Each structure stands twice: as C-alpha cells, then as structure tokens.
Amino acid sequence: MAVQEARGGADAAAHGGAHAGGCTCGDCPHGAREGHRRAVAEFLLMRDGFAAGQGLPAAVAHSAQASRQWVSEELTQSAELVAERGRAEGEAWLARLWRRTAIAVWALVVLLLLVQSLTAIGAGWTSARTAGLLAALLVAGALTTASWLHRARGGALAPVIGEDNRLSTSRAVAAAWVLFVAYAVLVLVGRLAAASGHAERDTLISGLELARGAGMVTVLAVVCGIAVLVRRVIGLRILGQRLQKVRADRPRASDLLTDDAGRGTFADIQYVVISAVAVLFAAVRLARRPDQLPDLPWGLAVVVLISAATYLAGKYAEGGRPVILSVVRAREAGDLDAPIRTGDDIEIRGAGFVPPGAQGADRLSRMVVRIGAVNVHVPLVPVAGGFSNPTDAVLTVPVPADVEPGRVEVQVVTAAGVETNRYAIDVTD
C-alpha cells in the first residue's frame, strides 16, 4: 500500500496535482493527517487479521514459532510506517499551531474589550480601562511576534513544550503567572503615564511596593522555581535510569492533566486547577483595584504553595527502574515439565517493561531481551484490540540456538533504552 501511495503521488506530480490542497499522499503537510489515518487503519486491519489467524502464508503456518516471528516482522514494518506518518503529522500540526495560538490571543483581547464596554455602561469609560486594553494589546503583540518567530515549534506554546514533545504542566503554570504579572505591571505603567497629579502618581508607585503584592510575588517565585527544578529532576532521573521517557508525536492539551500514558494524575490536576483559580482571583482583584498589584491573600497563597509542593513530590515519586523478578520456561497445555533448553520459550516476569506512552507497536517492537551475549527482539503477539506480548509485567521470547548451554544472564532493554537487573538462568543441552 505504501508503494501504491508513492506511485500515486508520482502520477499526481506528473499531472501537475501533487501536494495540492487535497493531497492525501502523506508526504506533505497537506496530506499528513490523511496519510497517518490511512496507515493506522491499515495497521489495525492487519493486526486484527493476524489475531484471527488470517493472512499467514503456507510456508510458515506449520510452525508456531515461525508464524509468530513472521507476524511480528510484518507488524513491525507496518508499525514503523505508522510512526513515520505520525511524526509527519505532528510536525505539520506544530507548523500550523502558531496561527491558532495567535488567533486565540487576539480573541481574548476582543473578549476583554467587550467586557470593558459592557461594564462601562452607566459607570463610564475610565483611564484604568484604557490602560488595561493597551496592556492587553502589548501582551498580545508580544505573543504574536513570539508565535511567528517560533512558528516551527508551536508558536507561543514553544516555551511550555518539554523535551519529550509534550506540554509541561510546571512550565504552563509558571507561564500563566508570568504573563499575568507582566499584564498587571503594564496596567500600572499605563495608568502612571496617564496620571496628571503628583498624588495620583505617588499612589500608583506605592501600589508596586512589596507589602502590597507579597503573596503574589511569593507564588510567582515558587512556581517559576518549580518549573526549573522539575526539569532538572526529570533529567537526572532519566540519566540515572530511574525514569523512563519516550517522545510523543505531538503535544496535546491533555498533557497538562495526564501522565505520559494518557492517564489522569492527581498531582498534575490539582496543581492546574488550584493555580487557575488563584490566577482568576488575582485577575478579579486587579479589575477591582487597578492602582496596585493584586494583593493575593496569604491564605490563598499558602494553598497554591501546598499544591506546588504536592506536584513536586509527585514528580519525585513517579517512575522507577524496570525489574526482572523471575524467569521460567513457558509451558503450553500438554507439554511435559522440563528444564530450559535452546529453542524453548521463556517467560520473563517483572514490572515496568513497557514505559508510559510506549504502548504503540513501533515502541513495543524495539524491546530487546539480552540472553547471555545474544540480543533477542521481543516478538509481537497480536490479539483483538492489542497485543498479548509484550506486556508491562510479562515478556515471552525464544531462547535462540546461539545461546551456549550453561548459566547465562537475562536482561531486558525497554523501548526507552533502560536496562533491567540481570537474572541468571540455567540452559541445558
């Protein structure tokens, strides 16, 4: 199918229609999504067909090990195509994201203008409203410029995208506080520039004193420090093989609330929710008192600090090195009990074999079991809706004939490149 698609793209080029707006070849940003969708559909159809026992050639159907190896190789090749299409779609999505972020920023400016216009009915337009609108225009202009400069990396979201190509919760929270504080200071600057009397200017300058915004300044310092510390902690844990990380195809909004496997995590959710509530409270305080920094009450500030500490503790607690607990000879129904010999299947039991976010076939196919000096790729065994091998707790691999009889060590290398402990087994003739 990939060859047919490539030939179809060449034919389209010959007729002058290649890479047009409706291109679906998967080789350009216009057709990246369609190419990925088709590759996924073909892979799922192949996997479910093999799971039902269909599509096996007669040359390997007589041998369970041969058929399993052939199926695994076919699925691996198809999964590599899916991964390639997924990366292409992710790059195209990031290239388009800067326009969306710019539109969203200016939509917020328009919303602010509407809110100010509605609240000005009866009360009248004030210099504070003008200063707030001008500050919003300056912030929106800066974000739009940053979006264009980083248009290949997600626009304005580039600073909050982590090295694993996921949105970072700590960076997103810190960025929200930084933007709000910058906006609040610009509002005071605008009011100070428009002030005509000495008394009004002195009042605005005193509004920047630390005593007025101590709570908010403390929260800003803590969340920014946590954003830097979390990056350092994760980097050290990866280098120490105590945390497994795999790269995502593209960032998603759900990354702020979930782990790498897409499961919601309490530490991230509570940090985002409490921080969002605190920023909203500070925004209301700024609207009510635009002549000073928002005086975030110490009670609310302490709540945010506790939330930040919980998030940091969660980052320290997550992950762990994969471990082999036991290795036994795999036995099918009717087989006699026997020692492990070359050609037999062994079942490796443990934990952490599949890193979070590595449930895709292209990642699973990269798992390797080192038996003595021989590296054995873990075969993919399809079942309806997924794979029965490998799993996070159990791996099944054959003992190749190249393994010398005697005492050998078994070690698993995960898709993230992390090695487990060594486990010794006896292989007989």
Structure write-up:
The protein has 429 residues and is an alpha+beta fold. 53% of the residues lie in helices and 11% in strands. It has eleven helices and nine strands. The protein has helices at residues 2-14, 32-51, 58-61, 64-119, 127-149, 169-194, 198-206, 210-239, 266-288, 298-317, 361-364; strands at 323-329, 345-351, 368-371, 374-377, 381-383, 386-389, 394-398, 406-413, 423-427. The strands form three sheets. Strands 4-3-8-9 form a four-stranded antiparallel β-sheet, with no helix packed on it. It has a three-stranded antiparallel β-sheet with strand order 1-2-7, with no helix packed on it. Strand 3 (368-371) and strand 4 (374-377) form a beta hairpin. Helix 4 (64-119) runs antiparallel to helix 5 (127-149), helix 6 runs antiparallel to helix 8 (210-239) and helix 8 (210-239) runs parallel beside helix 10. The protein is elongated, with a radius of gyration of 29 Å. Mean pLDDT is 86; it is low at 1-22.
Quick one: biggest sheet? Answer: 4 strands, antiparallel
Strand content: 5-15%
Shape label? elongated
Quaternary state reads single chain
Kindly name the structural category. Answer: alpha+beta
Order of helices and strands: HHHHHHHHHHEEHEEEEEEE
Largest sheet, spatial ordering of strands: 4-3-8-9
Helix proportion range:
40-55%
Labels describing this entry:
disordered N terminus, Integral membrane protein, membrane, 9 strands, transmembrane helix, 11 helices, alpha+beta, Ig-like_fold, transmembrane, three-stranded antiparallel β-sheet, about 425 residues
